[in-house]
Each structure stands twice: as structure tokens, then as C-alpha cells.
Amino acid sequence: MSVAQVKNLQRRLDNLAREAETELNRACGHELWQSVGFDAFDGIEDIDRRASANYYYGQWQTVRELQDVLG
Asked: In whole angstroms, what is the distance from residue 61 CA to residue 57 CA?
């Protein structure tokens, strides 16, 4: 990959991470999920909000793993 492609990929990954964080904060109603992790979603009673939180947490974790590999 060229330097430009890596920078573009990093920019897109940052956008995905921000989107996931915003949606997780919305689904949970707080930022506690960042320190507690997946267990923060157990208390969400609304099934749709819990499903959304699980989806975006998976997206957020995937982005973080890719960012770690890219450096």
C-alpha cells in the first residue's frame, strides 16, 4: 500500500470509530462502556438498543484492531 492509501484508510477507520462511539454512547446513555466494555450492555433493557450497542461495539473493536496493526 502506498502512503496515501494508508493515510486514507486511517482516516476512514477514524470516522468509523467515531461513529461507533457516538452510537454506543447513545445506546448506553453514558460513556461507561469504554471502561467496562461489553458488560455495559447487559443492563440495557430495550432489545433494539442492546442489539445496536452490540453491533457498534463489534465495529469499534474491529476498527481498533485494524488501527493497531497499521500503527
From this structure: 6
DSSP 8-state assignment for residue 42? T
**Is the confidence at residue 37, as pLDDT, over 80?**
no
Q: How far apart are CA 23 and CA 34, in angstroms?
A: 12
Look-up of cell digits 452490540? 54
Alpha helices (H) along the chain = 3-28, 33-36, 47-70
Q: What angle do CA 71, 68, 29 make, to 5 degrees?
A: 130
pTM of the full predicted structure? Answer: 0.85
